[in-house]
Specification:
single chain; Metallo-beta-lactamase, Chain A; 17 strands; 30% strand; binds zinc ion
Length: 243
């Protein structure tokens, strides 16, 4: 299995490269121009957007249409006027709990606790999970009722993800949540079988490091929490992140 090469774009945006196949997730800004630099070397390119929020979907991704095999877009994006700018012949709209399989790529969607979907992408033996805005969104100072709703929504969806296996998971560890920053990621890692974690959706906050009790004993996995656009790591199957 080729190693995965992962470049942080911004927020929940990542460019993942597997040999000459590229995957772009939630690219709303790419200040370091990582995708443009790699584009000429790619033979296949798949582009994903988990939901319509501006910090996840930017119709400017249509600039990759010439190279892209497919755009996998969450159905809620369709409601945006700007979605009409997308190349319809290459766009695949996905609902929650939807799937697509073709040409050696398999995409499965799950529900989010915010809008849209999360993605499980299978390609060349790799299983890549990108949570989108699926998270336990517990806001300090919010009403008890709202936070109970957030907890219940998260737990309900976690039941569907229980035991999920993936080689890598991109998951929100949002600094704005304060003491609840890791509620979602911690439970997600405890209840799934993911082999490596990339923390995301925490722009402007210091680099996150898991507390000693973040992982259940025996379930410690490699973590990467990028801060600067253009940061890159390589992940080997069953190994850790290396520069
Ligand atoms: Zn978001």
């Amino acid at each position: 299995m080729d190693a995965l090469e992962i470049t942080y774009l911004l927020n929940s945006g990542f460019f993942v490269r597997l040999g000459d196949t590229g995957f772009i997730f939630d690219d709303y800004q790419d200040p370091a121009g990582a995708v443009d630099k790699a584009l000429p070397e790619l033979k296949e390119l798949y582009i994903f957007a988990s939901h319509a929020h501006f910090d996840h979907f930017n119709p400017a991704i249509r600039r990759y249409a010439g190279k892209a095999n497919a755009f996998f877009l969450s159905s809620d994006i369709r409601l945006l006027t700007s979605s009409k700018q997308m190349p319809m012949d290459k766009t695949i709209w996905l609902d929650t709990y939807d799937g697509y399989e073709d040409n050696g790529i398999c995409v499965t969607t799950f529900d989010s606790t915010d809008e849209g979907t999360s993605f499980l992408v299978e390609k060349n033996g790799w299983r890549i999970f990108h949570a989108g805005d699926f998270n336990w969104w517990h806001w300090e100072g919010d009403t008890e009722e709202n936070n109970a709703f957030a907890r219940n929504g998260f737990r309900k969806q976690m039941k569907r993800l229980e035991g999920l296996t993936a080689d890598i998971a991109f998951f929100p560890v949002d600094g704005r949540l304060g003491t609840a920053q890791t509620y979602g990621a911690k439970e997600f890692c405890a209840r799934t079988d993911v082999k490596a974690l990339v923390a995301m959706h925490s722009v402007g906050y210091p680099r996150w490091e898991p507390a000693p009790d973040f992982f259940l004993p025996g379930k410690e996995i490699p973590v990467w929490a990028p801060v600067d656009s253009g940061e890159r790591r390589t992940l080997t199957a069953g190994g850790g992140f290396s520069k």
